Amino acid sequence: MGRADPVLVEIVEGTLASVEKEVETAIARTARSPMIRDAHDFRAGIHDRRMRKLTGRSYSALVQPVVRDFPIETMRPGDVFFHNDVYLSEGGIGHLPDLCVTVPVFLDDDVVAFVQAFGHHDDIGGAVPGSMPSHARSAFEEGLMVPPIKLWDQGVPNDAALRIMTRNSRMPDSLAGDLDAECSACLMGARRLGELFARYGRAAVEDCFDAIIDKTTETFRREILSKIPDGTYVWEDYAEHDGVDPPRLHAQRITLTKTPEKLIIDFTGTSPQAKGPINHAGDYADGVFLKKWLAPVLRNLADSPERMAELDVNEGVVPLIEMRFPEKGTLLTPIFPAPTNARTFVILRLLGVLAGVLAKATGGRMPADQETIRYTGVYGEDPEPYLMREVLGGGSGGRYYADGEDTIHVVPDSRNIPVEFAEARWPFRVERLGLAVDSGGPGEYRGGLGYDKHIRMLRDAHYMSIADRSILSCWGVNGGRAGRPFRAEVAGTPMDGLVDDHPVRAGEVVRIRTTGGGGWGDPLNRPPEKVAADVRDGKVSAEGARDDYGVVLAGTPEEPSADEAATAALRERLRAARGPAAFFDRGPGYATLAGGRTHADVDDPAS
């Protein structure tokens, strides 16, 4: 812990967490747009003067681009900085609707820390409502790009910049309200942190910052990296569609080398940048954003789920990870102005690629795959223009000790938009919102289930979607089976995952089923009574119990039970028919796009 007083470290750590939560609560209570206020698709973060992230409850953007363009010695109390430019954000911003506000913290006239908030806003201009054109070929189609600017100068808002931004937005009132909420909340957070420095002194607080970060480094080295055998492991996974070219495999590959001191993550073998908007500009600032984005996956190697929940991911993970990027011109190293608005296809897939390569390294101790974010919605006029865009989650992967979670979101604290609010605000009725039966991948530990949502439009509108895993599935691991992919249809007509403006007539129904997580372990090893309970709870159908799990049901539909003798006989036949299970199971959609490649090839992409 170095020079820091251990008691003061606890006080400082608690204060940081409290300030971060207070900033987020203030934003949620005062923002205007449903995406920020109701869906909570935003995050706050606290960084020290050296631009190191101190809080670890969630990821956040970076301070580096602000300090690059506005040296610390030029900053003054009351300054607020803003940016959303993907290529000038040092990798911290993935697409233009993510707007970032940064406020320096002062002790006397010196900057001692930063409070930052960034979130997904309704509209920042561009070719389509919502600023996420799924068929974009250029960043110039995606909306207004703002490099780091001073949005407030010593407490005085930059009205000209605000007018430019709101003029470019289809939802100017929401945008103005959200920015005001975020600026005010971060300024409040900066005052709170300034009080911490004033109370205990700069030197003592900065020693605590060092201790907090050093503790994370040592904890991850001792408790996590020690679980990974030294060696080199390879795994790759794919986005399936870029919105421009026909569906095909867009590979993201990781070659993981574990040494006694660190992990080396080499992205060589990742596909060339796409024509469409699935690129992610990750190769800036030595990949520091991606290091902190990917590091939470490592927590799955903790000794227990309880210990996993205790591990924060702050700047302390950065020294433990070295990243090696391919040359410019790949999905992770795109060249401006390559479009990026659907970059979730890549950065979410990277979470799974890291989990997959760690599963190979640890004998399957990692969870199966998940795909827990996609954007769906409708827009039209009622009579004023409106946009309902929702980030619906999906099921997480089964784990070596438990089933996956149902309908989760990769962004902590995020949620679907409440039905009551949606029906009061927009011209539709939500006729169903529940779990998608059989969507979770079969396994000894079942994958989590996705959403099943039906929306009946009351006025003519347009449907939009930015969704991956509509062909490919979330893979199962260690004998587990893949989950069900994303499905959407309008009036019975199936939709692609990437849709900008499909017409929906008044009275027609939009049906959405989000992805289920992959299963973990052989489903024929799942206790029959658990399968019967899944059927009773509406998570698995009677047909799924029989065909996927080899369980013959008895009892009544309301209170099903397992016929033990018939189940044992059926499972024996299924084991003989299925043969040895693949370590990874990608599901039937993989064969559609793989061009003859087998599952065995995928287990070792280098082959």
Molecular structure report:
By secondary structure, the chain is of the alpha+beta class. It has 15 helices and 23 strands. The longest helix has 29 residues, at 172-200. The two termini are 46 Å apart.
Supply Rg.
24 Å
Biggest sheet, spatial arrangement of strands: 1-4-3-2-5-6
Model regions low in confidence, pLDDT < 50 over at least 5 residues: none
Q: Helix proportion of residues, in percent?
A: 25-40%
| Individual helix count | 15
Helix-strand layout with pairing:
Layout: H1 6-30, H2 34-37, E1 42-48, H3 64-69, E2 80-83, E3 98-107, E4 110-120, E5 149-153, E6 156-157, H4 159-168, H5 172-200, H6 202-223, E7 231-239, E8 250-258, E9 263-266, H7 288-294, H8 305-310, E10 321-324, H9 344-362, E11 374-381, E12 385-392, H10 419-425, E13 428-435, E14 451-457, E15 461-466, E16 476-477, E17 487-490, E18 493-494, E19 498-504, E20 509-513, H11 528-536, H12 542-549, E21 553-555, E22 560-562, H13 564-578, E23 584-585, H14 589-594, H15 599-603
Parallel strand pairs: 9-10
Antiparallel strand pairs: 1-4, 2-3, 2-5, 3-4, 5-6, 7-8, 8-9, 11-12, 11-15, 13-14, 14-20, 15-19, 16-23, 17-18, 17-20, 21-22
Helix pairs in contact: 1-5, 1-6, 4-5, 5-6
